[in-house]
Design brief:
There is one protein chain. The strands form six sheets. This protein has a five-stranded parallel beta sheet with strand order 3-2-1-4-5. A five-stranded antiparallel beta sheet has the order 12-15-18-22-19. The protein has a four-stranded antiparallel beta sheet with strand order 6-9-7-8, sandwiched between helices. The chain folds into three domains: 92 residues, Rossmann fold (3-Layer(aba) Sandwich); 69 residues, Dna Ligase, domain 1 (2-Layer Sandwich), CATH 3.30.1490; 245 residues, ATP-grasp fold, B domain (D-amino Acid Aminotransferase, Chain A, domain 1, 2-Layer Sandwich). 32% of the residues lie in helices and 26% in strands. α1 packs parallel to α11 and α8 packs antiparallel against α9. With 441 residues, the chain is an alpha+beta fold. The structure holds adenosine monophosphate and glycine (GLY). Glycine (GLY) binds next to loops.
C-alpha cells in the first residue's frame, strides 16, 4: 500500500514512524517531508498549500491513501479535490474543516447545538466590538476568526490590552489580514487544559490517547504562546469520567450536528478542552492531529494507525464497537527543542549535534521538525527544530528518558522547557490510585 503523508513537521515524522509499524507494511511518500522523514520514505518537494500539485503527485505515484497533517490544505479543500478524482484521502472536507478554519463558524455551531464552550459574541466592525468590551470587562479573550498559525488568540488581563488586541485586528493595521477581519470576543475560562483526539468517520468515532500540551515558551507557563513546547500522553487529568462526559456532551453532539447540517465530519476532530468547575468546555476545535501532541500520543496508541485511518475513510468505525481504546500500558512525553528567539525572530542554519547518541538511549526517539541537510550536515531550519520523545511504563520514567535524550543534543541557541509533564506528575502524587500507570518510589 502506497501512503502519501502531507506535511513537513514533527507531527508528520511521528505519523510516518507509526504507519511503518502496521502489519500492512506500507510504502511511505512525503510532501514535502524533512530529513527525518527521508529516512522513512521518499520526499517530494511539493508545498502543503499547492493542492493541484499534490493531486498530480498522488496520481503520478499511484498513491492508495493520502494523510493530511496540517490544517491549511484541509481548510483549502484538499479533501474535496481528491474525492472529486476518486482518490482516497483522510481528513474533513473544506466545509467540515470550518470547525477550525472559522472560529466564528465553530462558536455559532456550538451555540446551535448546545455544546459547552465560553460565552461569546462575533464582530466585523471595530466600534460595536469596543462597545461590547465595555460590557464584558476583563479578563477576556479576543480571537481572530480565521487561521493565524496559533497566534490568533489573545488572552487579555486588562481592558486596555483587549482594546488594543481588537484594534490591531479590526482597525487599519489588520495584523492578521483577512483571518482577523472577523473577531470573536469570549469569556475567559479558568481551569486546566487537555487535548482530546477523536478519529471520526462522519457518524462514529474512536478516541486516541489524550494529551496535555505546553503552549507557552517558558517554564511555569510564562511568556508568549507557541505552537507547543512539549506534551505528554495520556493526560492524567482526563479521568475516565471526564472523558465519558466529553464524548457525551461534546464529541457526539458535534458529529451529530455536522451530519444534520449536511457536512458529516470525517478525519481527526481535535478538541481543546478547558476543565472548568462546571465540567469540560471547548476552547477550540482543530481539524487535524496536534503538534507536538502527536509525538506523544502515537507511541502510546496501541492500535494500528493505518487500519484506524482506513476505517475512517471507508466509514467502518461503527463496526469496531469500542469508541475508546483499551487503557494504554505506556506513557510518552515529548520535549521540543526550539531555536533561540522562537516564537519571535530566530536564526537557522546551525549544525545539530548528538542526535544518534540521543536515539541510542533506551526508550528515546528523536522526531525532526525544522531541520534540513546542508552540505551533508543536519542543520536547524525552523522555530521548533526537534522533539525528543521518551516512552516508558510511567510518566516519570518517560520524562526521565526524554530529558536524558535532550541532554545529548546540542545546537547553537537551543532552548527548551524544563517542566514538561510536571503538572501531570504532581497530580499523580496527590491521587496515585486514580491512574493505571505505575509511578516508581
Ligand atoms: P486557541 O487558539 O483558541 O486554542 O487559544 C490558544 C490558547 O489561549 C488556549 O490554549 C488557551 O490557553 C487560551 N484560551 C483560549 N480561549 C480561552 C478562554 N476562553 N479562556 C481562557 N483561556 C483561553
Ligand atoms: N499543539 C497545538 C496544536 O497543534 O494546535
Amino acid at each position: 500500500m502506497r501512503i502519501l503523508v502531507i506535511g513537513s513537521g514533527g507531527r508528520e515524522h511521528a505519523i510516518g514512524h507509526k504507519l511503518l509499524k502496521s502489519p500492512r507494511k506500507p510504502t511511505l511518500l512525503f510532501a514535502p517531508g524533512n530529513p527525518g522523514m527521508a529516512e522513512l520514505g521518499a520526499c517530494y518537494p511539493v508545498p502543503v498549500d499547492d493542492v493541484t500539485a499534490l493531486l498530480e503527485l498522488a496520481k503520478k505515484e499511484a498513491v492508495d491513501l493520502t494523510i493530511v497533517g496540517p490544517e491549511i490544505p484541509l481548510v483549502m479543500g484538499i479533501v474535496d479535490a481528491f474525492q472529486a478524482e476518486r482518490l482516497r484521502i483522510f481528513g474533513p472536507t473544506a466545509l467540515a474543516a470550518r470547525l477550525e478554519g472559522s472560529k466564528a463558524f465553530a462558536k455559532a455551531f456550538m451555540a446551535r447545538h448546545g455544546i459547552p464552550t465560553a460565552a461569546f459574541e462575533t464582530f466585523r466592525d471595530l466600534k460595536p466590538a469596543l462597545a461590547f468590551l465595555e460590557k464584558t470587562g476583563a479578563p477576556v479573550v479576543v480571537k481572530a476568526s480565521g487561521l493565524a498559525a496559533g497566534k490568533g488568540a489573545v488572552v487579555c488581563q486588562t481592558l486596555q490590552e483587549a482594546r488594543s488586541a481588537i484594534a490591531s485586528m479590526l482597525g487599519p493595521e489588520a495584523v492578521f489580514g483577512e483571518a482577523g477581519s472577523e473577531v470573536v470576543i469570549e469569556e475567559f475560562m479558568t481551569g486546566e487544559e487537555a487535548s482530546v483526539f477523536a478519529v471520526c468517520d462522519g457518524k462514529n468515532f474512536l478516541l486516541l490517547p489524550t494529551a496535555q500540551d505546553h503552549k507557552r515558551i517558558f517554564d511555569g507557563d510564562l511568556g508568549p504562546n507557541t505552537g507547543g513546547m512539549g506534551a505528554y500522553s495520556p493526560a492524567s487529568i482526563m479521568t475516565p469520567a471526564l472523558l465519558e462526559r466529553t464524548c457525551r456532551e461534546i464529541i457526539s453532539p458535534t458529529l451529530e450536528g455536522m451530519r444534520r447540517e449536511g457536512h458529516p465530519y470525517k478525519g481527526v476532530l481535535y478538541v481543546g478542552i478547558m476543565i472548568t468547575a462546571e465540567g469540560p468546555k471547548v476552547v477550540e476545535f482543530n481539524c487535524r492531529l496536534g503538534d507536538p501532541e502527536t509525538q506523544a500520543v502515537l507511541p502510546v496508541y496501541e492500535g494500528d494507525l493505518l487500519e484506524t485511518l482506513l476505517a475512517s475513510v471507508e466509514e467502518r468505525l461503527g463496526q469496531w464497537g469500542e469508541i475508546s481504546p483499551s487503557p494504554s500500558r505506556n506513557c510518552a512525553a515529548v520535549v521540543v527543542l526550539a531555536s533561540g528567539g522562537y516564537p519571535d525572530a530566530y536564526s537557522t542554519g546551525f549544525p545539530v549535534q548528538g542526535l544518534p547518541e540521543s536515539e541510542a538511549l533506551p526508550g528515546v526517539q528523536v522526531i525532526q521538525a525544522g531541520t534540513k541537510i546542508k552540505d551533508g550536515v543536519l542543520v536547524t531550519a525552523g522555530g521548533r527544530v526537534l522533539g525528543v520523545v521518551g516512552k516508558a511504563e510511567s510518566l516519570s520514567e518517560a520524562l526521565h528518558a526524554a530529558y536524558e535524550g535532550v541532554s545529548r543534543i546540542h545546537f547553537e541557541g537551543m532552548q527548551y522547557r524544563r517542566d514538561i509533564g510536571l503538572k501531570g506528575l504532581k497530580r499523580m502524587e496527590k491521587s496515585p490510585g486514580l491512574f493505571r500507570s505505575k509511578e516508581p518510589g
